[in-house]
Every structure is written in structure tokens, then in C-alpha cells.
Task: inverse folding
């Protein structure tokens, strides 16, 4: 009953999230690629920031969602929460890969290197490997309930990487620049702040929308398998 | 006639068509801005086309060609690229940016009668290939992922509705 109510809620609200995300991202792309000015030092290449930073922030937001959902699953043992964990992990992997790729493309013209073993980059690459391990564990464990439990524990342990990623630029002297928005103030020009904010908020809301759609997709997939008898057949063989 | 997958999938295609139109317009505006404010031409194109409007000329300052600049006089040098050389007279303020063998972008007009490119400003060298790659490699997979997920969900609702409940054989 909890699952049916939850999926019904997702269906009711997902369209609004998708609509708002599309508007914000369209405005962010317009201001970022058409109206904002180039950077004094980096020139036009600064425009990569409007896609790279939102991807990295969303990768961390999606892992944080995975962490919360994993605790929730271990506490309540609801299968639909496990679907949400699985969905968040897949999306986090997608945004992490996107963040690494766009960062590498940005690194070449600014640092003259596609990759450096900088603390921020290395800790972010560890997040990518953790998520690959998480999804492999899900695939290889045949007992779905046991697999969900092990994966939730792995996600909770892996969460330790998130503060390391965030504070790496403060703790170590690194090539990667410190956060542009911090307690020390904002170090971005106002006309760059507009696309930066629109894209940051837009991609975060888009992640919420994608999580809603993907959780439904995984839930419906299991529902269809149950209806077709595949899950029952597996149970009978055991 | 509705597509075989049902009305939900038809709505999905309609929604995505609108999105594609909106994002294509933004793409067109971005390309127009690039043409207007960033695109450069090479000395070879300059010499062959002799444009009479303001242009951005990109090339490398030939070794030993940089002359003048003293007592407020303009700099004279030749820019080369793709095997062609264009003589340039630069009378702008940013004189420290000029060195032998440096690749630069100068903004000015080609004076066909004098056979010289008169420039008054130095621009940043464009590196739009990196920007295009970053946007293409991140946004296109994102769009494909969302579309495939939405389509799968729409189809799953139809399939679940049509599927008969499994009856175990006795």
C-alpha cells in the first residue's frame, strides 16, 4: 500500500518538476551561451563551467539521496525505497561520469592537461568507482533482498567520500580552484552568476524529476515481472 | 489513429518535439553569437576574400617581423597561418601582448588599397571546440537517458494494464 501511494504521488508531481527544470535549463543555456560575457583570463572556455559545476553538484546531491534512501531502506525495508536507492545510484553514476568528462575537457585549455592527480579530481574519481562497485554488486547478487541490504551498507560506507570531495580544495593545496561560493563570499561576476544559478538549480530539479521517473520505472519493471510470474517462478525454483 | 503503444506515448512524443524546438532555437542563437563575436578568419581567407567589414584575424606573429611601436608609432608585423601571410598595422594600446611567434587575434579591417590589415584591438584566442565538446558530451547523453526512461515508463504502464495475472500451473 505504501508503494502504491508513493508511486501515485510521484506520478502526480513529476510533470511539475520536469516543466520547471526545462524552463530553468533553457534560460540557463540561453544566458550561459548567448548573453554572458567571457572571462578575463579563460576567455570563452569559461562557459564550460555552466555545465560542469551543475553536473558535479548533482552527482553529489544524488549520492546524498542514495545515502538517505539506504538508511531509510535498512530501517523500513520497503521495496519501493530500494527502487529509489537503485535509481539514485544509476543517476549519480551518470552525473559523476558527466562531471569527470566535462572537467577533463575544461582542464585541457586551462591547465594544459586532460587529467591530474589532484585531491578534488582523485576523490571524485573514487566516487565514480564506488558507484560502479555498487551497481555491480546489485547485478551479481541473485537474492534481491540480500543484495539490497549489502548495497545499502556499501552506500552508507561510501558516503565518507562526499565530505572529502567537498573539503579537498580547502584541506590540501591543489590545482583545482576553491569553491566560488563559500562563507568567505561569492567570487563570480554578477553576469556569470545568472547562468550559474539557473543551471545549478535547473539540473538539481531535473535530477529530482529523473529520480521520480527512474524509481517508477524500476518499480513498474518489478510489478510487471511479478504479474508475468517471473518472480514467482524464481521463488518456486528456490 | 493512435500509435500502437497508446496515447501516453503519443503525448510523450509531442512533449519532446516542443523541447527539441525550444533547445534548437537556443542552439541557433548560440551559433549566431559565435559567428558575430568569436569566429576568426585566417590570413589565407583574408587575402582571398578581401572582406570590407570588421573581422577577427588569427595567426602567429612571424619571427623578426615585429617592428615600430616607439614614440607612439603603430606596430607593424606579419601574421601567418595555413601557409599565407598578412601584413598588419596595430595602433591599439595593448602593446605588451605582442611578441614574436605568439598566436594572437587582432580585430580590424582589411584595407585592400594599402594591402594591410589595420587593427586597433587584440582579442582572446577562441577555443570553442572545447566548449562544444563539453556541451555535446554531457547534454546529448542526458537527453537520451531522460527520453528512454520516460518512454519505458509510458510503455510499462501500457504493458502492465494489458498483462494477464500469472496463474501458476498446478
Result:
Amino acid at each position: 500500500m505504501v508503494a502504491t501511494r508513493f508511486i501515485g504521488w510521484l506520478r502526480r508531481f513529476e510533470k511539475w518538476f520536469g516543466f520547471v527544470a526545462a524552463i530553468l535549463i533553457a534560460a540557463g543555456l540561453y544566458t550561459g551561451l548567448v548573453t554572458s560575457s567571457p572571462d578575463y583570463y579563460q576567455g570563452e572556455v569559461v562557459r564550460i563551467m555552466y555545465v560542469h559545476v551543475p553536473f558535479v553538484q548533482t552527482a553529489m546531491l544524488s549520492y546524498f539521496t542514495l545515502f538517505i534512501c539506504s538508511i531509510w531502506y535498512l530501517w523500513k525495508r520497503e521495496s519501493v525505497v530500494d527502487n529509489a536507492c537503485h535509481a539514485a545510484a544509476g543517476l549519480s553514476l551518470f552525473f559523476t561520469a558527466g562531471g569527470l568528462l566535462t572537467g577533463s575537457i575544461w582542464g585541457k585549455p586551462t591547465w594544459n592537461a586532460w587529467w591530474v592527480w589532484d585531491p578534488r579530481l582523485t576523490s571524485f574519481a573514487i566516487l565514480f568507482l564506488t558507484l560502479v562497485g555498487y551497481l555491480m554488486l546489485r547485478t551479481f547478487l541473485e537474492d534481491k533482498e540480500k543484495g539490497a541490504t549489502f548495497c545499502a551498507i556499501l552506500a552508507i560506507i561510501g558516503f565518507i567520500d562526499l565530505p572529502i570531495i567537498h573539503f579537498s580544495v580547502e584541506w590540501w593545496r591543489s590545482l583545482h580552484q576553491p569553491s566560488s561560493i563559500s562563507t568567505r563570499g561569492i567570487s563570480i561576476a554578477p553576469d556569470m552568476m545568472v547562468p550559474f544559478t539557473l543551471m545549478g538549480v535547473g539540473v538539481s530539479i531535473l535530477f529530482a524529476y529523473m529520480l521520480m521517473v527512474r524509481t517508477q520505472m524500476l518499480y513498474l519493471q518489478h510489478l510487471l515481472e511479478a504479474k508475468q510470474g517471473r518472480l514467482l517462478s524464481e521463488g518456486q525454483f528456490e | 489513429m493512435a500509435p500502437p503503444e497508446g496515447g501516453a506515448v503519443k503525448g510523450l512524443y509531442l512533449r519532446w518535439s516542443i523541447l527539441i524546438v525550444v533547445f534548437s532555437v537556443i542552439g541557433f542563437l548560440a551559433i549566431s553569437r559565435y559567428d558575430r563575436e568569436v569566429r576568426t578568419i585566417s590570413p589565407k581567407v583574408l587575402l582571398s576574400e578581401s572582406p570590407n567589414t570588421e573581422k577577427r584575424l588569427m595567426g602567429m606573429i612571424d619571427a623578426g617581423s615585429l617592428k615600430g611601436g616607439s614614440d607612439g608609432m603603430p606596430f607593424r608585423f606579419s601574421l601567418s597561418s595555413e601557409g599565407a601571410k598578412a601584413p598588419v598595422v596595430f595602433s591599439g594600446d595593448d602593446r605588451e601582448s605582442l611578441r614574436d611567434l605568439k598566436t594572437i587575434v587582432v580585430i580590424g579591417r582589411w584595407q585592400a588599397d594599402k594591402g594591410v590589415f589595420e587593427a586597433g584591438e587584440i582579442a582572446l584566442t577562441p577555443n570553442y571546440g572545447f566548449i562544444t565538446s563539453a556541451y555535446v558530451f554531457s547534454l546529448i547523453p542526458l537527453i537520451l537517458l531522460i527520453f528512454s526512461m520516460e518512454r519505458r515508463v509510458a510503455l510499462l504502464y501500457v504493458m502492465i494494464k494489458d498483462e494477464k495475472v500469472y496463474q501458476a500451473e498446478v
Q: What stands out?
A: The mean pLDDT of chain B is 86. The first strand of chain B starts at residue 55 and ends at 61. Helices of chain B lie at 7-37, 43-49, 128-162. The longest helix of chain B spans residues 128-162.
